[in-house]
Amino acid sequence: MTNSISDLEESNCFLITGTNTTENHPVISTFIKRAVTQRGAKLILADPRNIDLARFATVWIRQKPGTDIAWINGLMNVIISEGLHNEAFIAERTENFEAVREAVKKYTPEYVEKITGIPAEDLRKAARLYAKSEASAIVYAMGITQHITGTDNVKSLANLAMLTGQIGRPGTGVNPLRGQNNVQGACDMGCLPGNLPAYKKVAEAAERKPFEDAWGTALPDKAGLTIPKIIEGAAKGTIKALVVMGENPMMSDPDIDHVEKALGKLDLLVVQDIFPNETAQFAHVVLPSSAWAEKEGTFTNTERRVQRVRKAVGAPGEARDDWQIITMLAHKLGSDWGYGSAREIADEICRVTPSYAGITYERLEKEGIQWPCPNAQHPGTPILHTHAFTRGKGLFSVCEHKAPAEEPDADFPFVLTTGRILYQYHTATMSRRSKGLVSRTPEAFIEINAEDAQRLGIGQGDPVEVSSRRGTIEVAAQISNRCESGIVFIPFHYNEAAVNRLTVAEVDPVANIPEYKVCAVKIRKVA
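Above: the chain's sequence. Below: its structure in token form.
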């Protein structure tokens, strides 16, 4: 997030898209709802489904799945044509604006309506609310990124914020909500295949050198593989061994049948986790690791805040902390790593990661600190880009609408979109072990529009077979008008009806994120 969670209460207007915030980030949603109900903040919701936030929305623009660039460009078209853009901010702090101005000319509200289904006047109203507000915040999540255009979707939102100068101030910004509790920290520490800690590039010799000096070894000069490329390599036989740590590709990756075949070809699969999961069924070795309450360390949350986690109970059986397991593996592979505690690793992070340099254990004893924090006297950074962008001037990027990888046709007439629900978490390795949570959401379901259900002879709770070109699952029908006719939704938490048996493996060419949010399916009632 460019801003802080508490900062959301200072916003006068929200543009919320690709996030079912009340269900996926319920604590953060309270800040947004309070701003709307107690201070009169305006809320623009862009979502194909009638999620709970629609009740709070000033304007709800209901786009067709996979059309985000079109409606964001449409907002910019209105803002520029009505003179609502921030010319001073654009001139002083950005570049390449004229290219984007030219590109969005064709995205008139009427043109956008044909692509997205959003009424032209609703788009105009949303554009005016966002641009005229003194402080507008963009909030998004995986409904924006999990498309073949995910990178351009995010760039489009950045364009919109720069166009209006809605960044670098309280209550503004572009604020992604992370999907798991330490995704931000993992990325910060170099768990992206082309990055070292602090997003230094492995391909740049000057950026590798401080780490090579600190670690006393030469580092690879080429980026590693993303998850889709790893699975592809396993299927082809070019990847022979794989360590899976805290991940469950047999539930979370697209086209699971393909994933299963790929994992089956590995010479060695090691799974490191706190509970047995679907992927562990294919493992040659399982390494039990300790859970969050059983270890020391830090998490970095969605607002870039580094926080201490403290050991509350001992780990069961042979379970070890993840850092201990990794260190032991390194020793077995011939490296002499001398770490003796999580604190020693945190101290090294301060030494080698400039944005974390001032985030010491001593300071974290009292409160969490937001990076960048370059020294021990620095208070941390609650708002990014207050005076300049990391690259100097913000770069406007030309982004054009591109259709999803797979669209409905006569054989597969429905658009399937996937996501999460309030009472389950990710691949449910933990949450479906809770009797209370399971009692609220005991089985997989498909949200289907009442009109479609009537036409197909499907009643509430009926077993329904859902098929794509890749697989078939059976779920219970949940009839409502949360989805428009022709669109269905299935949560991805249930292994007995794993929706990722249906999803496409096509990925965004830059980030390699699969298109989980759009694929074509057919539906029939099970006799």
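The longest strand covers residues 472-480.
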